[in-house]
Amino acid sequence: MKPELVSFKLCPFVQRSVIVLLEKDVPFDITYINLKEPPEWFQAISPLGKVPLLRVGETVLFESAVIMEYLDEVNPPSLHPADPLRKAHNRAWIEFASGLLACQYNLTMAAADAAAFAAQCTELCAKLAQLEQQVAGPLFNGADFALVDAAFAPFFLRLQLLEGWHPLGLMQGLPKVQAWSQRLLQRPAVRDSVVEEFAELYRNHIKGAGAHGARVFC
Ligand SMILES: N[C@@H](CCC(=O)N[C@@H](CS)C(=O)NCC(=O)O)C(=O)O
């Protein structure tokens, strides 16, 4: 059965699953909705009112980490490390990646003024410094691409754009994180995981939010 992802075009959480599906060359459908005016059918099936959803036949899955794991499991070979401890460690860092995405959202869309923006930069730098200790290099676990890499890639794709629009140097002094980010962004599955007009849409989204990030990046 062909899986169907329900998404909106800028969602980093949906992007994780798109990367996994592209890495595994699995056919899928993707339906985009407007999150500001979600259609009734979406409200009826989304327990948290959030994307991603994955529809497989009559079953609806939600939560990006759960969806990634399901897609990985039914499309072997697995992108998780085989060792249970390492696998659990990867899952823990996937959760950390979600915190990083929330921080990036606050930086771009929520920080009301320069002070709040600076506080988000400080928090992001601290989180990235934590990450530097964990990256084996060149990818998170070493040579093999894993689900944990797919979970972080949407963050790095956005960070690259933000740094291009207004250099903040958030990865300065973090050589492993920098090299990891470069490797991820070179992967076709990562590059192809967003719509063609992504950069423009992302910038307009930040502008539209009208927070301090709009003045910095747009
Ligand atoms: N923990 C969720 C987070 C998903 C999430 O925050 N999705 C955002 C879009 S990127 C959303 O649907 N927001 C709508 C809302 O919160 O009302 C996951 O990992 O799937």
Note the main attributes of this structure.
single chain; 218 residues; alpha+beta; Glutaredoxin; Glutathione S-transferase Yfyf (Class Pi), Chain A, domain 2; 2 domains; binds glutathione
Anisotropy-based shape: globular
Biggest beta sheet summary:
4 strands, mixed
The helix/strand order is EHEHEEHHHHHHHH
Q: How many helices?
A: 10
Number of distinct beta strands: 4
CATH topology of the largest domain: Glutathione S-transferase Yfyf (Class Pi), Chain A, domain 2
Q: Poorly predicted ranges (pLDDT <50, ≥5 residues)?
A: none
Give, in spatial order, the strands making up the sheet with the most strands: 2-1-3-4
CATH top level of the largest domain? Answer: Mainly Alpha
Bound molecules: glutathione
Give the C-alpha Rg: 17 Å
Structural class: alpha+beta
- Which CATH architecture of the largest domain is right? Up-down Bundle
Helix content: 55-70%
Mean pLDDT: 97
**Number of separate domains:** 2
Instruction: Give the strand content.
Output: 5-15%
Report, as a whole number of angstroms, the end-to-end distance.
42 Å
Short description:
This protein is of the alpha+beta class and 218 residues long. The chain has helices at residues 12-23, 40-45, 64-74, 84-110, 114-132, 147-165, 175-186, 188-191, 198-209, 212-217, and strands spanning 4-7, 29-32, 53-56, 59-62.
Fold topology:
Blueprint (H helix, E strand, L loop, with lengths): L3 E4 L4 H12 L5 E4 L7 H6 L7 E4 L2 E4 L1 H11 L9 H27 L3 H19 L14 H19 L9 H12 L1 H4 L6 H12 L2 H6 L1
Parallel strand pairs: 1-2
Antiparallel strand pairs: 1-3, 3-4
The structure holds glutathione.
The site of glutathione has 12 residues, from helix 1 and helix 3.
